[in-house]
Specification:
Helices cover 40% and strands 12% of the residues. By secondary structure, it is α/β, with parallel strands linked by helices. It has 2 domains: 178 residues, Rossmann fold (3-Layer(aba) Sandwich), CATH 3.40.50; 210 residues, Rossmann fold (3-Layer(aba) Sandwich). Helix 3 crosses helix 4. The longest helix has 17 residues.
């Protein structure tokens, strides 16, 4: 005789800012069909547009009053769970604190650590604040409970669709800021300038791809050893909140100085542009100038394109701040050195030694542990699916609903409190960190000795970033800047270099 499982207790989910798509709205409807209640808070017009049809309240109060408003809303509506897209948005940072104080569960969702076709769903926070374990033995134990995940890419969607949704969300909120006049935006760049700056690169993508393939083919043909550095978006919270670097140019300079001084002279380094970079930071010019000053221009390459899997399979090693490319590197057996804080920065998977030592004898990741990590993540904090593909979205929502209502997010022992990376466990405690980063990085939980990067940036670059106090103030202003401002944080947009 079969025994029917009792339906889960009715919950009331509060949705805060979501991904610029219909994902959150459809997830809310799916939860309601299961007998739960879903409520949404709109902070800007973009939120209201993508949340149409969902029960909502609009918050037009000051940022300072937001925690009090939220606490009252939680009490009044009987909120049991809070759900938000991206844990570092200003309103979400405060929401996590309020929820924790009131004993309400909070969840963050984002693009996945595993890519493509995966989404992240974690309790509380991600990256530095992630509760996912760093202890290899515990990861092996959790991984043994799950089958190996299907890493085949199944849910593709045109980049144009993603860009269209993002543009609608940001420009509607920007131009009709008057409807939510006290909204504090989280955009690093002014949206108009960001989108206009990206047009030239979009027009040259084919030429850039051909040039990238030619460079990689040349390195492979000549059997030249090389290291890969995948660039991240400058606006990425992973850099601003989970790394010791104020600006990605500081990381580039730090890496190039170490490479020039310690890498074998026969080896090269390849900087790979992020697929969604708008070209506004002028990375090709900055990298070329720095390499020339260090006398290694012939050994340094910049590519906008190229096959990532091929690059990782043939590279001597990969150096990055905390890009999810690190997960690809680990799964493909490519030696990895992590400069920031990353959920995959785990002993025997990434090389914990100083970067200066990495160039000469990079250590390969432990293959069995890498397999266990994939299994553990997929079973506890990763969900196969997509924000845009109908099939991928439907699959992800089914799993989201199951894990949310059964409270199995970070389940099977994958919830460690306090967050282990904040406690300085794992490789985070072993890595060298650039000087001057202690204050910013301490907020993310990073620890470790410091290496000075003075002189890594030339005079023309240093003046762009300002001194430490000024940059700290600019960081805060950039994070809480209203949509109506025509200001770009820290550095002016540099002209992208023309490559044929």
């Amino acid at each position: 005789m079969s025994i029917e499982r009792a339906p889960p207790a009715r919950k009331t989910f509060l949705f805060l800012q979501g991904h610029p798509s219909s994902f959150a709205r459809e997830l809310a409807k799916a939860l309601e069909r299961r007998g739960h209640r879903a409520l949404r808070v709109n902070f800007c017009l973009g939120d209201a547009l993508f949340g149409m049809g969902q029960a909502a309240v609009s918050y037009r109060g000051s940022f300072e009053d937001w925690p009090t408003f939220l606490a009252d809303l939680i009490h009044r509506e009987g909120i049991t769970d809070v759900l938000y897209y991206g844990d570092r948005r200003p309103y979400h940072l405060e929401a996590a604190k309020v929820a924790d104080a009131l004993g309400v569960r909070s969840y963050v969702y984002e693009f996945g650590y595993l890519r493509p076709d995966w989404l992240t769903l974690e309790r509380g926070q991600m990256t530095s604040g992630s509760h996912f374990p760093v202890d290899p033995d515990l990861i092996r134990e959790i991984g043994a409970k799950f089958d190996r995940p299907d890493l085949t890419a199944r849910y593709s969607s045109p980049v144009a669709i993603e860009l269209f949704h993002e543009i609608v969300y940001n420009l509607s909120s920007y131009f009709l800021h008057v409807l939510y006049p006290r909204y504090r935006a989280d955009r690093y760049y002014n949206p108009i300038l960001e989108y206009l700056t990206g047009i030239p690169r979009q027009l040259r993508l084919s030429a850039y791809a051909r040039r990238a393939n030619a460079i990689v083919d040349g390195l492979l043909r000549d059997k030249t050893g090389y290291f890969l550095y995948p660039l991240q978006l400058q606006c990425d919270y992973q850099i601003r909140h989970h790394s010791p670097f104020r600006h990605q140019s500081d990381a580039i300079d730090f890496v190039l100085r170490s490479f020039a001084a310690h890498a074998p002279e026969r080896d090269h380094i390849v900087f790979k542009c992020h697929p969604l970079d708008n070209g506004g930071e002028g990375w090709p010019d900055h990298i070329a100038r720095t390499a020339t000053r260090l006398g290694i221009a012939s050994r340094v390459h910049y590519i906008d394109g190229g096959n990532l899997e091929l690059l990782l399979k043939t590279a001597r090693g990969c150096v990055l701040i905390n890009s999810t490319v690190g997960m690809h590197a680990i799964s493909l057996g490519c030696p990895l050195n992590v400069l920031g804080t990353a959920v995959f920065d785990i002993p025997t998977l990434s090389d914990p030694r100083p970067l200066d030592d990495f160039w000469t004898a990079p250590l390969k990741p432990d293959a069995p542990l890498a397999d266990a990590l994939l299994r553990a993540m997929a079973g506890t904090i990763q969900v196969k699916g997509s924000f845009f593909s109908w099939e991928g979205k439907a699959h992800a929502i089914r799993v989201f609903v199951e894990r949310l209502e059964n409270e199995t997010v970070n389940g099977s022992g994958a919830f460690i409190s306090p967050p282990p990376r904040l406690a300085g466990e794992g490789n985070a405690a072993a890595h060298d960190r650039p000087d001057g980063a202690a204050t910013a990085f301490a907020g993310c939980g990073g620890a470790g000795s410091s290496i000075s990067v003075e002189g890594a940036v030339g005079a023309e670059d240093a003046s762009c970033h300002g001194d430490e106090t000024e940059r700290e103030q600019q960081d805060v202003q950039a994070e809480h800047q209203p949509k109506g401002s025509l200001r770009i944080a820290r550095c002016p947009v540099m002209k992208p270099s023309v490559q044929e």
